Amino acid sequence: MAPADRAVGPSERTLTELLRRYGAGEPVACEPLAEGLLNRGYRLATTRGLFFLKHHLGGDPQAVIPLAGRHRATAELAELGLPVAPPLADRDGHTVVVHRSRCYALHPWVEGRHRDGGQLSRTQSRRLGALLGRVHRSLEKVIVRWSPQRLPEREAARTADTQALIDQLLVRVRSRPRRTGFDELAEHRLLERRTLLTAHAHLRPGRAEVPAEGWVHGDFHPLNLLYRTEGPVEPVAIVDWDRLAVRPRAEEAVRAAVIFFLRPDGSLELPKVRAYARAYRSATGASPQELAAAVHRVWWERLNDFWMLRWHYERQDRRADHQFPAAAALVGWWTRHAPAVRDSFCD
C-alpha cells in the first residue's frame, strides 16, 4: 500500500481497522487531497473500490449542526434527487466513526472536477443558480422537523473596528524585514480600503435589512461542487455540508455568485451573474428586493473583511494567498459599479 502522509494522515493500521467496520475491504492506497482549507480528506483505494475518507477536525467555529444530523440531511437530499454523496453507514448503522479520539466518515468516491464561473457558459450559470435554489427549497422540506439552529445574531461590521484592524495589519506589513510583492499589494489594498470605508461609512446596513432566513449549505463555492468529467457539463456532487445552518438564504446566493463569477482582475462576469440570479429567484420565489438587500450586506461584508491577510500575517498560513489579488481588487470594483452589480442580481 502507498503510505499516507504520516504527519497528518491515518496510518495503515488505522485504515485497516476503519475499513473493517464498514466491510469495505483492505486498504491499497491512501492519497491526501490538496483541496479544502478545513478538515482533511483522502482518496482511499481498497480491495473493494474507491472511497473518500474525511477526517473531521472539529475546529470550524461555524459548524452548528451535529455531524450525524448533517449526514441525515444529505441522505434525505439524495432521496429528493439532488446531487450529493451521503456517507456510508458502518455495520452498526453509524455514519460517524470515532477511532482513537479521531472522527471519520466514509463516502463513496465521486469522479468529478471543479469548475469556476469562467468555465461555465451562460446556460450552465443559469443551471447553477437553479441548483442552489433547489438546495434551499429542498432543505426546507428535509429539515422541517428540526428545531431551527440559528447562528448568533450578527450586526454588520463597524467601521471603527475595521479601521483599527487595518492599522494593526499595516504595522505587520510594514515591519517585514524583507518585503515581497504580496506585502506591497497588501499595503496598497489596506490603504485603499481605509479610504473606501471613510467614504462609505454611512452605508452600513441596519438590522432591518437582513433578508429572509432559511436553511442553507453554508459554504457553496467551486471547491464544494463537482462536475462530470465527461459528457454534458452537469453537477454530480455538492460536498462539504459542515456549515449547514439557518442563515439569510439570499446572502448565500450572492456570496456564491461572487466567488464563482470573479474574474482574475477583480471584476464580476455580470451577464453570467444575471442568468444565475434569475434562475435562483425563479427556483425559490425570492423577490428582487430580497436579493438587493443581500447584495448590499455582502458588499459591506467584503468591504470590512480581511481574513486572507489575517491568515497570512497572524497565522503564517499561506494557503489563501493566491486568492487575495482578485478578491481584494473586487471590493474597489464592486464599490465603483454598485448599481450594475445590484441590477444583475435583481433584473
Structure description:
The protein has eleven helices and nine strands. 35% of the residues are buried. The longest helix has 21 residues. The chain is globular and about 60 Å long. The strands form three sheets. A five-stranded antiparallel β-sheet has the order 1-2-3-5-4, with helices on one face. The protein is 44% helix and 13% strand. It is of the alpha+beta class. Helix 5 runs parallel beside helix 10 and helix 6 crosses helix 8. Strand 2 and strand 3 form a beta hairpin.
The arrangement of helices and strands along the chain is HEEEHEEHHHEEEEHHHHHH
Sheet-strand content, in percent, reads 5-15%
> How many DSSP E strands?
9
Largest sheet: 5 strands, antiparallel
Rounded mean pLDDT score: 91
Q: Indicate the radius of gyration in whole angstroms.
A: 21 Å
